Structure formats: structure tokens, C-alpha cells
Fold:
Amino acid sequence: MVNLEGKRVLVIGLARSGQAVARFLAGEGARVTGTDIKQEADLEEESLNELRALSVNLVTGVYPEVQEGQYDLAVVSPGVPLTIPPVETAERLGVPVWSELELAARFVREPIIAVTGTNGKTTTTALVGYIFQQAGRQALVAGNIGIPLIREVERVSEQGLGVDYWILEVSSFQLERSLEFHPRIAVFLNLTPDHFDRHTTLDEYGRVKERVFANQGPEDLAVLNLDDPWLADHIHGLTARECWFSTQRVPAGGIGVADGSIVYESGGVRQVLCPVQEVRIPGRHNLENALAAAAVALLSGIDRQTIAAALSTFPGVPHRLEPAGVVGGVKYVNDSKGTNPESVLKALDSFQEPIILIAGGKPKGSDFTRLAGRIKIRVKALILLGQAAPQIEQAVRAAGYTAIWNEASLEGCVRTASRLAAPGDLVLLSPACASWDMFRDYEERGDLFKKLVRDLGS
Structure:
């Protein structure tokens, strides 16, 4: 636990997590300056007024100059590049720079379960929380899933809530500035190219995510995907006890698939958890997520009957292969959280229907070549929008695919999709890109898509 009374703290980035950090710090008696490169008119006025009422000094539209002896701590929001002047200057002057995750975790005393990876984090985190809920455990789900951990820490303290476990989705951006973050169980789902606008190589990206294991000891647990090439090649000799999962086999001391069933091994004895076909969420990638969540639950002492029942009833999460409606015999699916090419590949492989794909947004340095090849095989029509549209179009045309439409808005995309679709088709929003060129976040993008689909049917 950190004593923040009277500490001078600079909060960099005033989106959702930055606002939560500033409120928490002010409540702890810190002297807080909050800053964002966005102009005040581009930030939420109600939230800024709330921060002003807490005596938070606000600097917007420009970053403040950091002077020696001015701050005791800097807390940087996940979406803020670490190359901006206030971060670099703070580091040069020896000011500690923490992520929101690092700050919040220092106020947590209960066991933490942390889930990271390129794809599947949100689904796996939510599924672990669902299993624990079904088992009667008092578990709070937070983190990169859209609920800032610091906000939940504050709520638990104010309301005197009892918590058995904290179940956290953890991003590479959060782990970059983690120093003492210590999960009891850490899950690394997979690693595929993503965020190359921030991490320059796959190995650099992987090593940042590997920090989730950095402070674990022999009494802790690491859950890892044996089917992922990078993990299988690079993760060796962890201090924590390792539990591997696989859709291809049953790893020794781990969990996997054999003869159409999910099977786990403990003490050299294999036990069946449930048939694979009883897992409700679709797709092989979701089978991997289910295996990881089941491993966490088993390692936490939850009985297999409860786990099996939860796997068969878990409905999935919003914005991840989420049914958005059926209009005129055409299914609409919201996969707004599919923000990289690999996640779109998995989405395309989850359905048998002819697909009309809506993609595009803010590029993240991804290579669309492999996705273009799959689009040529699986996609009836491709509708593009956003900053990455020309890059995606170039890749798919190079693959010999020409059924391409460009639109300036998501509204235009949905109208075009409804015109092109025939009964039995599936319209899939799976952008392969971030949302920030046109939307606040992937949730706003997905919510608009669902509204537009509802409007089609009205």
C-alpha cells in the first residue's frame, strides 16, 4: 500500500483510466495535475468538471513541461505513447513512471488472476469471472476489459466490499510500466503481430507481455498456450509452476483435447471435463479461451461440474462475435473488438455462411497480406472505411480480390452491406484495426453498428 498524502502526481492522458486515476489520487490526498494533448472541447466536460471539483489541476491541448523536483510520480494512461516529452523527461529526472495497473495493484491485497495475449483476452477474462461467479466466489473483473482497476479498487474501499479474487485483463501497454505487479495466476493466451505502431518487433511485443510473469514465485501459477509457436519457443524456465493448454493434445500436468472432449491431467491421472461440443462460444479460438479459463478455475480449486456447466452456458462478451440481429434472413455479427488481422482470421473461420465483411479503421502497423488471402476465399464482399482502407484494399487487390466497396461512414457500410446481402448471408463487422480515427473506442463503434442493424429491421 502506497501513502499518497501530499504527493505531487502527474497523470498523463485523461481518457477513461486517466480520469479514474486522477479521482483516486485526489481522494488519497495527492496533489494532482492531469494532462491530455487533446483540447478541452474534445474531452468529456462533465468528467473534467468533476476533476476540477476535486482540485485537480488540468492542462489540456498541450503537455506541461516537467521540471526537476516538480513531481514525485507520473502515471501514464495505456493509450499514451511512452516517447512523448513528459514521459521521457520524467524518466530522465528519475521520477517513477507507473501504469494505472501498477498504481492500482499496489492497493490490492487479494489474489490477482491476470490474462494477457494478443487475442481472446476479453473473452477469457469474462469467462473466468463467470465461472467464479457460478462457483460462488467473490471475484471482481476489471482492467483492460473496459473497467479501470483503479476505479474498482476505489469502489471496494468505499463500499467495504469483500473480494476473493481480482480477475484482470492486462494489455502490453499496461505491462510496459509495471514494476511490482504480481498475479497469483498469470495467463498468456497467444502472440501474433499487433501494435507495431508501438512495439517494433514481435519479440519486443512478446517480451513486454511476458512481464506478466516477472514477479511470480514458485507458489504462483502460469497458464500458457502450447499451440502458440512464439510461446512454445520463447517461454522457458519460469519461476512459477507452469500449466500448458492445447487443442491438439493433453499436455503433461495441463489441459487439452482428446477424443472430442476437454481433458485435464493431474498427478498423472486424466479426467474428462466435458465434450468439446458443449462449449457454447463458437470457433477454435474460443476453444483455446475455454481451455485457459478452465485451467485457471481448476487451479483455483473449483470443481469440474461447475466449470463444465459454466462453459455450456457462458454467452460470450459484447463486441466479440456478438449476434447483432437478423434482418431479411441476413445475420449481422458485431466483432468490433477484432482490432488486428489475426482476430479477423479467427472470426472468418467461425462461420460457414457467405460473409460480407466490414473492415478498416486506424492502422496499427499490421501486415494485411495473410488476411487478404483468406478474404479472397471466404468473403463475398468487402466494405472498407477509415484510415486503413487504402492499405487493406491494396493488400486484397494484390491477392486477386476485387469485390470491394469503400464508404465514408459506418452508416454507409451497413447500408451497402444490406443491399449486397442475400438471405442466408452473414454481415460481419470485424475491422482488423483500432477505432480511434472515427470513434472513441471499439465499444462506441460496436454499439453504433448494433443500432444501425436495429434500424434496418424497424
